[in-house]
């Protein structure tokens, strides 16, 4: 529709020379009416409209597609949808000005990749592996986590437990803190320098020993706080940078 097709009433045409712009008012009314009609016809679809996309089928055993595909679990959740929360472990590291801190500094000079923070993280992982493996009598899982002498002592305890028909239950519910209490470099021979670090570990466990009849021998099925002293050892100057458990005892 062009402007030539618009015919104003004669009364308005007679007053078109006056100051009030009646022609603009009429054009505005027509524009509003036209816009309202377009709105009703086209609707309110603004922007790019989504296109429905079908999920690809998930194939089960036998090559047949599953009727209801199940999306993978989100990060931080288990297969049942339960959120897994890992509590932050408190690390206690001596200040560099202390005697223990100075020994840790010498260890850093022997191995540029060594830091007390990284050591405690490795010690934490080792603790989380050894506790359940010893309770289950998993000899393969214990291999390489300890010095040979300490590993022999743990395996002897597992054998004695099996002969007596006893069962060890150790559920590690959490680690509260890990603190470096001592650090040692016993020899001055850089080529065969052995480092030792003693750590106090505070953890929460369900720890109970039962006999062949299932009766409790030691411990309880309640969550208990444990304080342990673990001594870790490694030899500097070699390609093997892993710290192994050399001794353990209650704190």
UniProtKB/TrEMBL annotation:
TM ranges: 20-39
Species name: Gluconobacter cerinus
Protein name: Tim44-like domain-containing protein
One Pfam family here: Tim44
UniProtKB keywords: Membrane, Transmembrane, Transmembrane helix
Protein's UniProt keywords contain Membrane: yes
Higher taxonomy: Bacteria, Pseudomonadati, Pseudomonadota, Alphaproteobacteria, Acetobacterales
Tim44-like domain mapped to chain residues: 100-250
Region Disordered, residue ranges: 60-79
SUPFAM superfamilies, per the entry: NTF2-like
Gene3D superfamilies according to UniProt: 3.10.450.240
């Amino acid at each position: 529709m062009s402007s030539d097709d618009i015919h104003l009433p004669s009364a308005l045409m007679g007053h078109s020379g006056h100051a009030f712009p009646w022609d603009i008012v009429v054009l505005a009314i027509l524009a509003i009416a036209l816009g309202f009609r377009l709105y009703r016809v086209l609707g309110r679809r603004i922007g790019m409209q989504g296109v429905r996309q079908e999920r690809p089928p998930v194939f089960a055993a036998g090559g047949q597609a599953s009727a209801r595909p199940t999306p993978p679990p989100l990060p931080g959740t288990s297969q049942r949808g339960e959120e897994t929360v890992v509590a932050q472990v408190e690390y206690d590291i001596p200040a560099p000005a202390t005697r223990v801190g100075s020994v840790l500094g010498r260890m850093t000079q022997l191995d540029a990749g060594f830091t007390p923070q990284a050591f405690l993280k490795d010690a934490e992982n080792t603790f989380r592996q050894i506790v359940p493996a010893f309770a289950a009598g998993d000899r393969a899982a214990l291999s390489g986590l300890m010095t040979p002498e300490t590993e022999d002592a743990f395996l002897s305890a597992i054998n004695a437990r099996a002969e007596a028909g006893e069962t060890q239950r150790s559920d590690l519910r959490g680690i509260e803190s890990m603190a470096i209490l001592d650090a040692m470099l016993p020899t001055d021979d850089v080529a065969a320098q052995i480092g030792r670090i003693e750590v106090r570990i505070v953890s929460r466990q369900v720890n109970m020993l039962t006999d062949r009849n299932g009766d409790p021998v030691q411990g309880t099925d309640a969550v208990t706080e444990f304080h342990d002293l673990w001594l870790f050892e490694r030899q500097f100057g070699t390609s093997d940078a892993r710290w192994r458990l050399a001794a353990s005892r209650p704190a």
